[in-house]
Amino acid sequence: MGIKSWLAKPLAAYAVRQINKWKNNPISAQERTFMRLISKAKDTAFGKDHNFSSINTYNDFKKQVPVSDYEDIKPYIDRVVQGESDVMWPGKPIYLAKTSGTTSGVKYIPISKESMPEHLKAARNALFSYIHETGNSQFIDGRIIFLQGSPILELKNGINLGRLSGIVANHVPAYLQKNRLPSYQTNCIDDWEEKIDAIVDETLSEDMRLISGIPPWVQMYFDRLRARSGGRKIGDIFKNFSLFVYGGVNFEPYRARLEESIGRSVDAIETYPASEGFIAFQDLQQEKGLLLLLDSGIFYEFIPTDEYYNENPSRISLEDVELNKNYAIILNTNAGLWAYSIGDTVRFVSKNPYRILVSGRIKHFISAFGEHVIGEEVEHAILSVAREEEVEITEFTVAPQVSPEDGTLPYHEWYVEFAKAPEDISKFSLKVDLALQKKNTYYFDLVEGKVLRHLVMHELEKDAFRNYMKSQGKLGGQNKVPRLSNERHIAECLNEWIIR
Q: What is the mean pLDDT of residues 27-32?
């Protein structure tokens, strides 16, 4: 055992003791966070505009501060980007994280000197929690890779801006720098495919023990490694590889193929980082869900998803959430975001402690006929049937077909790239349709009532989704394919890769 792995165990024990202090007193932890945030920001432009000095309770806050999305707060963000101080949080942010918007184009999310350490602490504590639970700290003595964006940042009006993963790349602790790959030069390569090839060059003969990244891009890295090594399994190439850290998407659609590529079992840690804040991580290997971080500079609010687009939806704090109910998650942060809807939906699977599953995106749904099918439901439908049929899914997305050219009933149109295709795609798609009907009663009623017909599934060529993402300039990094959409832009783009 190396000195780093030996020291990690008492440090992990200390970190877990600190976590337990707020984990065991969740509501008071959130109340303290709320009051600190309001007090700190009361003299900012946003705080004055919303009369923070008169806010003493959460109910006061709800009356003063409406729920917002990026478009709503863009006038404030524009002032921040222009270099103005004390707009949404005291001073200027130390970073602006660039994210891809829909209506807004590029979005700029502020990261403050108070919020940046919380991103780093959460990532560290995810590893410490794992070490404390399992006793495995050997990965710290070997090589570690983070598949991430370029660390090169642009200076804009005195503020550094870049992708979140690139910003974080500049804060890898010194004790991990010697272990970390890829090199700085390779990490700066913009073209994702060129970058992956360079990473393969640097890592193929190394003692890789921890691999971290968004699953589809990790799979691409694995594919290139295997091609370069004559088809060897990742677990044979990296004999000490023992820990996979991921986030950003549901792992289940990628699990079978990643595990097949590795060739043996490795432990995994799921994380829930966002540009707006590090929200949760998997603190125990055998427990379902991610531990919601309640003492990290974020005060959480929740809106039931079925009320989200109502004129006056319910808006609750952690104290009033219910188990197994989908909520839009709303953040108030120590970077100056207030009642901000990040667009994700979560479901609580435990309240002691508070653990969540990320169930989808508010805007990623299909409700062309009132069915309101969400990501969690389509993923369950196809993956449950795939397991039963021993089919392997590489990637998929779903869109409504409202006006079929042949004049038949409308339907949900599925575009699926298989790693191992079903023998009969018609039978497979019918089973998926029935599974979705069981999961969503509105969809069942529409099919049963002959408003919709059974779904139509297209098999796509190999690398179809990779080629689509490349055509959109979104290959690699933190980009991912939406599972479903209420419009047909992605579907129309994918038509060229259908296997006829």
A: 97
Three-class SS of residue 103? coil
Residue with tokens 């490694």: 225
Count of positions (residues) in the chain:
500
Say if CB 94 and CB 114 are below 8 A apart.
no
Mean pLDDT lowest among 20-24, 175-179, 238-242: 175-179
Amino acid at 323: L
Could you report the per-residue pLDDT of 263-286, keeping only the tens digit for each? 999 999 999 999 999 999 999 999
pTM over 0.85: no
* CA 31 to chain CA centroid, nearest Å: 26
Neighbours of 328 (CB within 10 A): 24
Task: Give per-residue pLDDT as tens, 428-446.
Answer: 999 999 999 998 888 998 8
Q: Which CATH number fits domain 365-497: 3.40.1000, 3.40.109, 1.10.600, 3.30.300?
A: 3.30.300
CA distances 376 to 90, 253, 379, Å, are 38, 11, 5
Residues 6 or more apart whose Cβ sits within 8 Å of residue 314: 303, 304, 307
List the domain boundaries for the chain.
1-294, 365-497
- Residues facing residue 398 across a β-bridge: 414, 484
The torsion region of residue 51 among left (phi > 0), alpha (psi -120 to 50) and beta comes to: left
Q: Report the alpha-carbon distance of residue 406 to residue 398 in Å, rounded.
A: 20
Cα gap 212→148, rounded to integer Å = 9
**Measuring CA to CA, which residue among 349, 358, 331, 200 is closest to residue 287?**
349
DSSP for 32-93, written as a single string:
HHHHHHHHHHTTSHHHHHTTGGG--SHHHHHHHS--B-HHHHHHHHHHHHTT-SSSSSSS--
